[in-house]
Amino acid sequence: MPSFACFIIREWLSPPRALAGFMHPNLSFEQAPPMSVPFRFFLTAPWFGVLAGLLLLWEGPQVLASRWTPEALGLTHLLVAGFMLQAMTGALFQFIPVATGGNIWRPRWIAGITHPLLALGALLLVAAFLGAGNRLFLAAAHTALLGVVIVVAATGWAMWKTPASGATVSALRLAILGLAVTAALGFGLAYGLGRGRSWPLIEMANVHAAWGLGGWGLMLLAGVSYYVVPMFQLTPAYPPRLSKLLPLSLVGLLLVWSAQLNGVTPAWQQVTLAAGMLVAAIHALITLNLQRQRRRKIPDCTHRLFLLAMAALLAVAVSVVLGILVPEIGLATRFPVWVGVLVIPGVFLSVITGMLYKIMPFIVWLHLQRLGSSTVLPPNMKKIIPERLMAGQMWAHFASVATLLGAVWLPLLARPAGALLALSSAWLGWNLMVAVRNYVHFKDHMLSASPGHGS
Question: What's domain 28-370+378-440's architecture?
Answer without folding.
Answer: Up-down Bundle (1.20)
